[in-house]
Design a protein that fits this description.
single chain; 572 residues; mainly beta; Neuraminidase; Jelly Rolls; 2 domains; 5-stranded antiparallel β-sheet
Length: 572
């Protein structure tokens, strides 16, 4: 099996998370060039000069060999300090390369390569045929239907009255023009439609997406007005849409509140109770059944948000709350694994050095929400959701490529005129070949259970002793996961520095489980499970883990990446 790391040849700018934004589902794209038969991968980034760059490398395990500044071809506008402004890239079947960037209610910044399969020169041109579709654009994203068309989804905002429309466009290889596909997905004054990442079943070409509303006329503000949650699919490349609950009927477009035939979560008559967030994703399993992941409150009445996994079970929607990681403002990507396996790839920013991890969300697995694998670490808090190469998933390939940013303050505490920290951003693409066996690739980083403290009862505190792990170069060596059953007060872990790690407030009789937490600065010896006065533990269980093999793997990764033109690292 193969793993590799390819460093970007330039320092990237990610001050406002333009690049590693959860909604960026086409910031990286792989394709085969028929002229030489080789596979290549393109990556769109912003450099430290805040200009859009297009990078190319041989796919999947080579270093970047081409860098093109495409900022002027994309209109030359100054990069706005706005995390919506992610860049995107795609290659249509006829070889033309399509790039776009820097949009949040802006005119289209778009360019197409002058020659097929050639990323050295581009011409700025609008992709739309109607000027009313291009004045105030947000969220452009590309999706390739296997054996079919290259599609582009984007939102257009009209000003008077305030109307938001989600549109689908398709590239016509005969006329070499973009054309509108089907009807607008939605309509309604002061009403926004948000869609998840768009996933494609590689065996059938069926397109899947999940959606929700944000009603700007509602009583809340911003995301506080998000409501309803549903799924749609298309078997004709976005021309018409249907729902699994009533597949014999097409959905009448454009949609408005109250016109969606089937809702997975109906938030009426109190639309804000679930605290829905439009950071949501989709994927398709080997049976062709869609899965969705979305954060919202556990039940009506508000409360803290948790990630919820929804999947089609053949006759209806099943759901489960995710406990291994919590909602922290970062998005999560769903990724199809071996057979019916489904994984969530997310950024854990709870420690000093953020890490990208994968969690098993396979509905039939006894390890659901408990098997966690570390993919890469040593990322800064300024990182956000990794960018994945979704074009590979939509082709049915078992290859995971993820773009992350390693960042350090340069110089420390330097800030811009808005008092936001300035960071040096070193981008990298990490590739795991054979996603259908993710456990093998994550094994060097896998968390290994080393001890348990079970059936703690009473009012605490309870003392626990852990062995020293010896010399470790990993940023965090120890992790813990706690399940508390009891009432009153709160309970937490204390490693001796005064921090209340994983503190949970019990309230009435309850059972609460923390995500897997890093024990920063702990090097072995004694720690305690503490509780406030009033906590009555029926049962407290704590599982302790170590990070297995990080030192050797990180060192080998760096050695393989140093001065190698085409990275090919064999891992066993």
């Amino acid at each position: 099996m193969n793993k590799s790391i390819a460093q970007t040849p330039i320092t990237t700018d990610n001050l406002y998370r333009y690049l590693q934004n959860h909604g960026n589902q086409s910031g990286m794209w792989s394709y085969q060039d028929p002229r030489d038969g080789k596979w290549y991968q393109l990556l769109m980034v912003y450099g430290a000069d805040k200009r859009a760059k297009l990078l190319r490398r041989e796919y999947p395990h080579c270093a970047f060999d081409k860098l093109v500044d495409v900022h002027d071809e994309l209109g030359g506008d100054e990069l706005e300090p706005d995390s919506h402004n992610w860049p995107a890239v795609a290659v249509s079947r006829d070889g033309y390369i399509h790039i776009t960037s820097n949009h949040h209610v802006d005119p289209f910044n778009f360019a197409i390569s002058d020659q097929p399969w050639d990323c050295s020169s581009f011409t700025n041109e609008s992709p739309v045929v109607s000027s009313s579709d291009e004045n105030r654009v947000t969220y452009p994203a590309f999706v390739q239907v296997p054996g079919g068309d290259l599609l582009m989804f984007f939102r257009e905002q009209e000003v008077s009255p305030s109307r938001f429309r989600y549109l689908v466009y398709a590239w016509n290889e005969t006329t070499q023009q973009w054309e509108k596909r089907g009807q607008d997905l939605n309509t309604g004054t002061e009403l926004r439609l948000y869609i998840s990442t768009v996933s494609v079943d590689p065996s059938t070409g069926r397109i899947h997406l999940f959606a929700m509303w944000r009603d700007d006329a509602g009583p809340g503000t911003g995301a506080g007005n998000s409501e309803d949650y549903w799924h749609m699919y298309s078997d004709d490349q976005g021309q018409t849409w249907r729902q699994l609950e009533s597949p014999g009927s097409t959905v009448s477009l454009p949609l408005n509140i109250g016109t969606v035939p089937n809702l997975i979560r109906n938030t009426q008559p109190h639309p804000n109770d679930l605290n829905l967030v439009n950071l949501f994703s989709s994927a398709v399993d080997a049976n062709g059944d869609p899965h969705g992941l979305v954060p919202h409150a556990q039940s009506a009445g508000g409360g803290s948000r948790q990630w919820h996994h929804y999947w089609w079970n053949g006759s209806g929607w099943s759901s489960r709350v995710i406990s291994s990681f919590s909602y922290d403002g970062n998005g999560v990507h769903l990724v199809r694994g071996q057979g019916l396996e489904m994984w969530a790839v997310y950024l854990d920013s709870s420690g000093d050095n953020s890490c990208v991890r994968a969690v098993n969300l396979t509905p039939t697995s006894p390890q659901y929400d408990d098997e966690e694998i570390e993919l890469t670490c040593q990322l800064s808090h300024n990182s956000s959701s990794p960018i994945l190469d979704f074009s590979a998933f939509n082709r049915g390939e078992d290859i995971l490529s993820l773009f992350t940013v390693r960042a350090t303050a340069s110089p420390p505490r330097q800030a811009d005129e808005d008092d936001r920290p300035l960071w040096r951003q070193d981008g990298q693409v990490i590739t795991y070949e054979g996603m259908n066996s993710i456990r093998q690739y994550g094994a060097p980083y896998q968390l290994q259970e080393i001890s348990r403290a079970n059936n703690l009862s009473g009012s605490g505190p309870w003392s626990v002793s852990l062995p020293s792990l010896g010399d470790q170069s990993c940023p965090v060596s120890y992790y813990a996961k706690m399940t508390a059953r009891g009432s009153g007060g709160s309970v937490w872990l204390d490693i001796g520095n005064g921090d209340r790690i994983g503190e949970v407030e019990m309230g009435g009789v309850a059972t609460k489980t923390t995500p897997i937490m890093p024990l920063l600065g702990f090097s072995g010896g004694s720690l305690s499970v503490n509780a406030t006065n009033g906590f009555n533990a029926q049962d407290v269980d704590v599982i302790f883990y170590r990070l297995n093999g990080c030192q050797a793997v990180e060192r080998q990764f760096k050695e393989d990446a140093d001065g190698v033109s085409c990275l090919q690292s064999n891992w066993t």
